[in-house]
Design a protein that fits this description.
This protein is an all-beta fold. A five-stranded mixed β-sheet has the order 2-9-8-4-6, with no helix packed on it. It is elongated. The protein starts with 8 loop residues before the first strand and ends with a strand.
Length: 124
């Protein structure tokens, strides 16, 4: 499921709960990373959006540290990242969200997945 994989890590699960939400709803990304043969420490997940100034979206855990993978074929368990829209000025806005998994204290990019999120302004 990852865009690329170094034969060390893979996404066991990565999904966006909804790709289309109203401005009063949230979207959740569920991440679970799996190793293959070797022990892996220092696993970080960085979540970014194309809303670089965080003017319209907030991410509750933009930087997340995952548990070490000590045994072969183990996984980190499901971790959730919540995205909340706010101050949506127009009827509909589209955003790109990327989830990147790094190892070795954020030096090596190991996995990357992108999602599209559409937020519709809720009418009052």
């Amino acid at each position: 499921m990852g865009i690329f994989n170094k034969k060390k890590l893979a996404f066991e699960k990565i999904e966006l709960s909804k790709s289309k939400i109203n401005s009063d709803e949230t979207a959740t990304i569920t991440v679970n990373v799996k190793n293959f043969k070797e022990k892996i420490d220092d696993i970080s997940v960085i979540t970014k959006t194309d809303d670089a100034s965080n003017q319209y979206l907030t991410i509750n855990k933009p930087s997340l540290r995952l548990p070490s993978l000590v045994f072969p074929d183990s996984n980190t368990g499901s971790q959730e990242i919540t995205i909340n829209p706010y101050n949506i000025p127009v009827h509909k806005m589209e955003f790109k969200i990327s989830v990147e998994v790094y190892t070795d204290n954020a030096k090596k990019l190991m996995l990357k997945k992108e999602f599209d999120l559409t937020v519709t302004k809720k009418q009052m």
